[in-house]
Amino acid sequence: MLGAQMQFELSRLVDAAWAVAAYAAQGRDDLSPQQRAAVERALTLSGLPVGSHDPEFAAALTSQLAQAAAFAEGPTKGWGDMPDEVLLAQGRGSRQVADWIVDEAAPVLGLTGVAERSGAVFLDVGVGTGQLAVRIAERWPRARVVGVDRMERVLGLARTVVDGAGCADRVELRHGDVTDLADDAVYDLAWLPLSFMSPDAIPKALEAVRRVLRPGGWVIATTFAADSELPIVNAMSDLVTAVNGGSSLTQEDLLVEIRAAGYGETVALPSTPLTGALTAARG
Ligand SMILES: C[S@@+](CC[C@H](N)C(=O)[O-])C[C@H]1O[C@@H](n2cnc3c(N)ncnc32)[C@H](O)[C@@H]1O
């Protein structure tokens, strides 16, 4: 049997998971008065905000809790094995990623004017449930969005999300690998979440995207960078990416890959926990 001290240590960590659950549950309207009071006390004593609920971030947190529990149970459960509701919840967090691209990344890259023009085209590699793609289409109402994903099942979810948002005329969904892209050089901006790709797929993915960018177009590559000053943060990032069959690269390694793929200028962009570390490169 595990020693009592270690059992206490692990239980404290489970308390942290419950604090996250309490944050996410704040938005529920079916909590009993006793549950709500307990949630608020748990949050207050955890130093977390009470009453300033962020539903999209909360959905992504809930999805992370479900993904961790599924991994604990086994057999190996990565992104592709998750139930629809877990994928959709994580995808809701992607709406905030799209807002970040529009509000924080595009201005740094001088792309705001371009993206607001009719004829602008955005590429979403790994479109998943389509929520990032839809939000981009909502924020840039004259732009067209192409989303590609190699997982057929998620594209079914994405189709429902796109149709539900009423933007099927501007969001095209394609089944396939990023390396299948064969468009002429059309994209003004491409989103490339490398954290979900295996290390050997990264060079080919970067090259494939560079080929389809219009001259002067940008890729934003995202990694759950493994270069925090805190080793425990890097270890957790490695664990999550290993579960999903992805890669965690240091910013330095990513820059080496970007240069080898033939890109020009690079820019380190501001980021959030949902976006991962963001590096832009000009095609
Ligand atoms: C976290 S999901 C993206 C979530 C998405 N932003 C949303 O709104 O739901 C990452 C996606 O990348 C896809 N993917 C991974 N490697 C790929 C590749 N080489 N080509 C195309 N899609 C890929 C996966 O199938 C997965 O659906």
Automatic annotation (TrEMBL):
Pfam families: Methyltransf_25. GO terms for molecular function: methyltransferase activity. SUPFAM superfamilies: S-adenosyl-L-methionine-dependent methyltransferases (SSF53335). Residues 123-217 form the Methyltransferase domain. Coiled coil: none annotated. It comes from the Bacteria. This is Methyltransferase domain-containing protein. It comes from Streptomyces malaysiense.
